[in-house]
Design goal:
mainly alpha; 6 helices
């Protein structure tokens, strides 16, 4: 029979205590190490996600700034276009108004030859017209000279009306990008009326004054409506376009 002394028992107990404590210590160390490693991985994930978020925020900020700049430029340009277009349309209206008696033409009935020449210069008439008027006057025919001047003035006024009309129409076409649909529709109503009025002027017929006057009244009403449209739009706050991002 194997004999175990008390000392052996005590030694075995001490050994068990030592090996059990070491195992517990190793287990605790492993747990702490794993926890620290998990925290570092989580911190790294948070940092990477934060970088992604910051990058996207910077991109959105830059995009928004660009949209604000674009909206501001568009609004400024629209203000300029509306002001210039309304001015051109009014100039075209005034240029054709002379042909329906709404604006006076120079009276040549009592003018001398020198006064007729000054009038020709004021209208930037070519030298051939001045020469023709002077020759008629020298032929002791002042009445024919004055009549020739009246006809020359009318041709100049018609040409001015045509030029003013084309300037307004072309400006509206070139700057259509800045016109709202309501303003654009109103502008083309005015342009169409002016075109009809100019056609009446180029082909004059007796008894058509009432028709020309009616067309011109329509132009006036449409200009007032256009002014209201433009004023209402130009006093709106600038809107920045937005869209949903994927």
């Amino acid at each position: 029979m194997l004999a175990i002394s008390l000392g052996d028992v005590l030694m075995l107990g001490a050994l068990n205590m030592l090996t059990g404590g070491a195992a517990a210590g190793i287990t605790a160390w492993a747990s702490v190490h794993a926890e620290r490693k998990g925290r570092r991985a989580l911190a790294d994930d948070i940092a990477r996600n934060q970088e992604i978020i910051d990058g996207r925020l910077e991109g959105l900020k830059a995009e928004l700034q660009q949209q604000v700049q674009n909206a501001t430029f568009y609004s400024q340009r629209q203000h300029e276009v509306y002001a210039d277009l309304f001015k051109l349309l009014n100039e075209a209206d005034g240029a054709v108004a002379i042909h329906i008696g709404l604006r006076e033409v120079p009276d040549t009935s009592a003018r001398s030859l020198n006064e007729l020449m000054e009038l020709a210069s004021a209208y930037d008439m070519v030298e051939s017209i001045k020469t023709n008027v002077a020759e008629l006057w020298d032929d002791e025919d002042p009445s024919s000279a004055r009549k020739a001047m009246d006809e020359a003035i009318k041709r100049v006024e018609v040409a001015r009306g045509d030029s003013a009309f084309r300037a307004a129409k072309n400006f509206a076409i070139v700057n259509a990008l800045y016109l709202s649909q309501g303003v654009q529709d109103s502008v083309w109503e005015i342009v169409n009326d002016l075109a009809k009025l100019i056609a009446e002027i180029h082909v004059p017929e007796r008894g058509r004054w009432e028709k020309k006057h009616k067309i011109h009244e329509s132009v006036g009403v449409r200009l007032a409506r256009l002014r209201a449209f433009m004023r209402e739009e130009l006093t709106r706050p600038v809107r920045v376009p937005t869209h949903a991002r994927p």
